[in-house]
User: Fold this.
Amino acid sequence: MNIGERIENIVDSNIVKELEEKLAKPNKSIKEHTMDLIKELERLKKLGYISEDRIYYLVETACIYHDIGKINKEFQNRIEKSKIKKVKFNENKEVVHNILSIYFIDESIFGEESYEDYLKVVHSVLNHHNYCNTYEYIRNNNEFILEVLKGYNINQNLVDFIEILIGDLTDVIEDKESIKIKGYLHKCDYNASAGTVSEYPNNFLEESLNNMMQEWKQVNSNSDWNELQRFCIENRDENIIAVAQTGMGKTEAGLLWIGDNKGFFILPLRTAINAIYDRVRKNIIHEKDLEHRLSILHSSSLEYYLNNLENKKVDENFDLLEYENVGKQLSIPLNISTMDQLFDFVFKYQGYELKLTTLSYSKIVIDEIQMYSPELLAYLIYGIEKIVELGGKVAILTATLPPFIKDLLEKNIEFKYNPDGFTNDLKRHNLKVIKEEINPEDIYEKYIENKNAGKGNKILVVCNTIKQAQKIYEDLEKILPEEDIKNLNILHSRFIRKDRLEKEECILEFGKTYDENKNIDKKNGIWISTSIVEASLDIDFDYLFTELQDLNSLFQRLGRCNRKGKKDSSKHNCFIYTEIKSSNLRDGKYGFIDKEMYDLSKSAILSIKEKGQISEKEKINLINDYLTTDNLKNSDYMKDYDNEYGYIKSLTPYTINKKEIELRNINTIDIILSPVYEENIEDIKDLETKLKDISTLLKEKEIDLKRKSHLKKEKIILKDAIKKYTVSIPYYERSLYKNAISKGMAIKYNPISLSEFETIDIIDCDYDEKGYQNKNYTDRKSKQEDYML
Assistant:
């Protein structure tokens, strides 16, 4: 039976005619729009993303009925008038169409024993928009609804037993099939309305990876997929956990596991995401059909495209805005993403089903799962459980995996797991454990010793806090010879975007293993940083000086030293300081570090003090021995995890608004620093003026679509140009600044306007080669009149 016949079979014949004549949108009839949805639904089935005929049938039914409520007179009057000038919805005359639509659904078409199927379709149609609380509206406005539907043949059972139906609908709201039916309906409706494709096929990844291997074989005939990568190929149909040391090719392994399927690669840091995106784009798919194959999903994805796809920006057939939009609609087959772009569905906001349904036919790789806070880990594990429950597959690929996290993962999911991991006896690191606070003198002495001996002298210093990193930088600046100060660098998250990007490029260049002649690259230099260098940055230093963190972070830090294992490690190359600065102790806790986890990690490190050299297997064994569920069961970390997991699991769907969600659990805000503003005031004000002019032009009625698209792109470019001067700081620091202004202790600046509803604050503070530093307003008085521009 074709779709036209199906519509005629299940919809009243008088209404079928109205579907052809009446409008769903100013330029489309209800039937034409419905057929667009069915086209996308058929696409999903053809790609294998809907495998059950019954689910397809129920989604198709939901598609047929979803906009049928638009046949009412008031909606048609409004849409006709909107052809000339947009007319707003009038709640005194209209009822939202998703509510009206359910009154046309004929219960009998589902068969006598398929009442639950009827409920699932009604729920999907009723809640496919979020205009109001549908149940509450129906209860309070039953007579008004019937008045709007007067003259139509509607489902009388629904009218007579509406309270019973509402109770039954709430029972199916979290049913697996209900989630999928509604999710597929959302996906088809959004793409049909936008005129975009719901899914592009992944018919390229396996061939592209095999082609890359052939290229490697031309350089080295012995090249082949390693043990980890073969494990991923052999277990493509399984959920897997793979613990593999640095340098084993986890990225390629994850891609090989995804194969020719819809895939998402989840990483904790945007820097790492951008690096993998570029790697896949350039080295694997060679930019072929990029806009239909690969995307990045994070909060600055469009800005990254604008700044890095130079060859695409001059291609008239490539629309960057459309490319980014299609990626956000989750239509591209291979996606490199942050967790928050996908796993916010755990909050069960209205419409969350689209993401969860998309993930239910996808393969998701989670990289470095141990890096997340207890709250984020709770969101992640609960989300993984829901994905697997609905049919998705998950791979956990990580350099380290504490047993307590493995236990949490395996509580409700079966994983294929290699208990021996993918490690070897390679000894890249020779540890010296020092029961003191980190100090600049040790770093200085090692730098001078190496320099005088003509040895590789790339030194990485990793501190637990920005404040400590800045202090070490200041102290080294004072004691280093003047000619060596140029070799002293610092990188952390409190640099403006423009400076941080330059620093990241510099550290990647400085930290490469080989020079242009394929020899070990030797340089003199010290880079001081924080935990932002821990994951997925391909840097290779000769020596590491670090404060102790938990074992997972510590071993990630070690991975930035002698990364490829090609340098001599017969003598100490990693110096670990086990004492934390007393100013970082608050209420008996080590700041943001869980005390229990820190103390266990300290015990573990002290246990190998005399060994010096440590193999990759020994590192894994330490984590397995110390970071167990039993050892951490009473820790604050596990209490926070349990609280958050319990909260998220018990959430009633649609009780949280999507706009309220702050999944990252990071309370920061982007601001412009006063020294940066003063140095760049002409450029910033010029950009602000241009943005205002473009906003004015975009409001013009006669503007054509091509011009509008060009102006929107220009607007994004201008916004990005201003945001390059911003840095993220904690909300509480902005609050302190605002409080200081009210007391006349700080200079007040007018915010920079990005649009009618978006501004960026300027904050009176310090900013120099060490990055952002707030001012201690309790120790100084500053008045507005003292400030001269």
